[in-house]
Design goal:
Elements: H1 2-20, H2 24-31, H3 33-36, H4 61-70, H5 101-111
Helix pairs in contact: 2-5, 4-5
């Protein structure tokens, strides 16, 4: 029994380390910067996404994931049509798969570091 508890503990540590090891900045640059700007302070191109650094980086992880994956903001309103619903789209870094909740969390962790 003791060995099982130790094994489960090590597995949880490994999974946490794996999620923490995701490069939020790289994920953001590959999937978000073209609309939201290189530093999360708003887009400047043809599609001008809103500022993410600051406001949305302070949302709870659950709300941030809901916004990214389903296109619903922190007040329950749909995001603008230009914003992809990532649960139905694919991240460029993941070869055709929707982003995982860990990838979305890594992006939010990165946005929290942007000044």
């Amino acid at each position: 029994m003791k060995q099982l508890v130790i094994a489960l503990g090590l597995l949880l540590i490994a999974l946490s380390a794996s999620a923490a090891g995701l490069d939020g900045k790289a994920l953001y640059q590959q999937n978000c910067a073209s609309c939201h700007g290189d530093n999360g302070k708003g887009g400047t191109g043809a599609v001008k996404g809103p500022v993410l650094a600051g406001d949305s980086s302070k949302w709870s992880l659950k709300l941030f994931q809901r916004a990214v994956l389903t296109g619903v903001d922190d007040k329950g309103r749909p995001l603008k049509l230009a914003m992809p619903h990532w649960k139905d789209a694919s991240f460029q870094s993941d070869k055709g798969k929707a982003p995982s909740k860990d990838e979305v969390a890594a992006i939010q962790r990165y946005l929290r570091t942007v000044k």
